[in-house]
Here is the input.
Amino acid sequence: MGKKNTLANNHIEVEFSDEEIFDTIFKHAKQNYEAHFGEGYWIDHWTYILDLVENYSAVYPDLLNEKLYGDNEYKYFDSPIYVLPRSEKICITKDGKVRRYGSILHDDNEKISKLNMNPAISNWLRNEDN
Here is the structure.
């Protein structure tokens, strides 16, 4: 098993604790979110989100309302892509088979305009930005 950090791995000795070093680095660091369509996370995976909400509610029912509506610090990625409702993407073929075609709308201009998105960059939103 290797050592735990670059300083230790390279036998660099410093006068500061790891905590002091990280505090200094993070004071000057800027958080930069980068995500784009196709990277595996979709805001509309509501069933996963619902599972998380239900599990949180089972443990902290008294805190759920504040967590959902009072915390404006979290961020999420919203893609300029729109997943069409089932009624618009599922069809029956001539031979009676059910198929799903054209499930997504690339560059949903209405969504892009409404949320003031730039489809060429990552669009991370804070809850209070909506």
Summary: The radius of gyration is 22 Å. Confidence is low (pLDDT under 50) at residues 126-130. The first helix runs from residue 6 to 9.
